[in-house]
Amino acid sequence: MSRIQDDEVGDGTTSVTVLAAELLQEAEKLIDQKIHPQIIRAGWRRSAQIGRNVLNRTLADNCDNESKCHEDLLNIARTTLGSKILSQHKEYFAKLAVSVVLRLKRSGNLSAIQIIKMTGRTLEDSFLDEASSRIRSLGSTTLKE
């Protein structure tokens, strides 16, 4: 499970494993109460659907307002970058990532983003090459692309 999470998202392996363990622990209690596993599974699916519905009702697309859109993108980037490798450089790389994404102008063409890894300096020496729209990552720590 942890490997699948890491392959799909690149992080959150501990969180997904702990959540799965908690769900299984609670399921075990329900099975001890003679509740059939299919009923438990149906409850999980219903809970997931209710969660999706709540998220969909509360979602807001602020991209008509440039400053709100920029702040939303920064918040998304900060959350994503709160991982083990970049947590101490989160603010710097959040701003860098948002700058790159805004250059895409809603094309969604993520393959247009190129990260060039260079060794010998620190992560905070990384920068957006304005001429080529490439991130030059100068740190010796490798980033998952």
From TrEMBL:
<dbReference type="GO" id="GO:0016887">
    <property type="term" value="F:ATP hydrolysis activity"/>
</dbReference>
<dbReference type="GO" id="GO:0140662">
    <property type="term" value="F:ATP-dependent protein folding chaperone"/>
</dbReference>
<comment type="similarity">
    <text>Belongs to the TCP-1 chaperonin family.</text>
</comment>
<dbReference type="InterPro" id="IPR002423">
    <property type="entry name" value="Cpn60/GroEL/TCP-1"/>
</dbReference>
<keyword id="KW-0547">Nucleotide-binding</keyword>
<dbReference type="InterPro" id="IPR002194">
    <property type="entry name" value="Chaperonin_TCP-1_CS"/>
</dbReference>
<dbReference type="InterPro" id="IPR027410">
    <property type="entry name" value="TCP-1-like_intermed_sf"/>
</dbReference>
<dbReference type="InterPro" id="IPR017998">
    <property type="entry name" value="Chaperone_TCP-1"/>
</dbReference>
<keyword id="KW-0067">ATP-binding</keyword>
<dbReference type="GO" id="GO:0051082">
    <property type="term" value="F:unfolded protein binding"/>
</dbReference>
<dbReference type="Pfam" id="PF00118">
    <property type="entry name" value="Cpn60_TCP1"/>
</dbReference>
<protein>
    <recommendedName>
        <fullName>T-complex protein 1 subunit beta</fullName>
    </recommendedName>
</protein>
<dbReference type="GO" id="GO:0005524">
    <property type="term" value="F:ATP binding"/>
</dbReference>
<keyword id="KW-0143">Chaperone</keyword>
<dbReference type="InterPro" id="IPR027413">
    <property type="entry name" value="GROEL-like_equatorial_sf"/>
</dbReference>
